[in-house]
Amino acid sequence: MLQFIRLGWKSALRQPFVIMVLFLYRFAWGFALYELVKSVVVPLLYRYPGNASPERVKLFLAEIQFQLMKTDLIVPYVWLLLGLFAARMLLTPFLNAALYYSVEYTRLNNGYRFFKGMKELYKSFFLYYLLQMIITLGPIYFLIPIVKKMLSQAVSYEALLVHLLPWAAGLLIYGYLIRLAVMYLQFGRTANRPLFQSLACLLKGFLPILGIAAALLLLSFLISVAVLSVVFIWAGFWAILLYQLYRFVETFVSVWGITAQHEWYSSKTA
Question: Which of 67, 145, 209, 248 is least surrounded by CB atoms within 10 angstroms?
Fold first, then answer.
């Protein structure tokens, strides 16, 4: 398993163009979300009573709730948010196609293989992404009645959170497993290998595949905890610079996770 993580590291280092594009894309997406949230939250906070009595704070919260729930204040922002997510759903298959093609055909020029991957694989990757979204979000429909029941029976927000956490964790794990399965289907499509060969590779090597994924997820988590702890304690320009560097490292680790899995896939299907 460690062998494929090391090979994945070397493979990720050969993807500077893809990593930079993904970093800029994530930065732009994060900035757009930040501006959207800022445009909603900041005007609402103008009336925050500060160090006033708890009664005035409760009145402020009630007023905010009324504005959000009983007026159309939030409607334009909801449509804008939906538009952003729709744009993300259209762009993600393009970037995935470019990334997977770049990882598979390393002998080609960096920029050339990036755009060639978009051209050749976008339609297939869009269908895979759509399938992934449907399968991942499908269980939410069945969870809605359970959540409604919890909301009606909860005695406090803390109790509600305790009951919701196992379901949320299960949904996250389920979604990640679906992502892994689709990843191997995309490897097969990129390399023009049969669908069932990719599925067989996934099923036969499920435990090592899961081990590779878990190791890199743990690494990403530890980096996140370390950087965010420093940023919260050490505010200022250097904290902002460190956070942007962290976003770049996070992008690299996500590509590393794909290249490590690709090394495993290539070794078992060659």
Answer: 145
Per-residue 3-state assignment (H helix, E strand, C coil) for 4-22: HHHHHHHHHHCCHHHHHHH
Torsion angle of alpha carbons 226, 230, 236, 240, nearest 10°? 0
Residues ≥6 apart with Cβ < 8 Å to 92: 129
Cα angle value 233/238/240 (rounded, 5°)? 80
Report the pLDDT value the prediction gives residue 46, as an integer from 0 to 100: 66
Q: Buried b vs exposed e over 26-65: b needs ≥16 C-beta within 10 Å?
A: beeeeeeeeeeeeebeeeeeeeeeeeeeeeeeeebeeebe
- Do 252 and 12 meet the contact criterion of CB atoms below 8 Å apart? yes
Q: Taking Cα atoms as reference points, which of 252, 260, 256 lies closest to residue 210?
A: 260
215-255: pLDDT as tens digits = 999 999 999 888 888 877 776 667 777 778 888 999 999 99
Give every CB contact of residue 246 below 8 A, 6+ residues apart in sequence.
223, 224, 227, 228
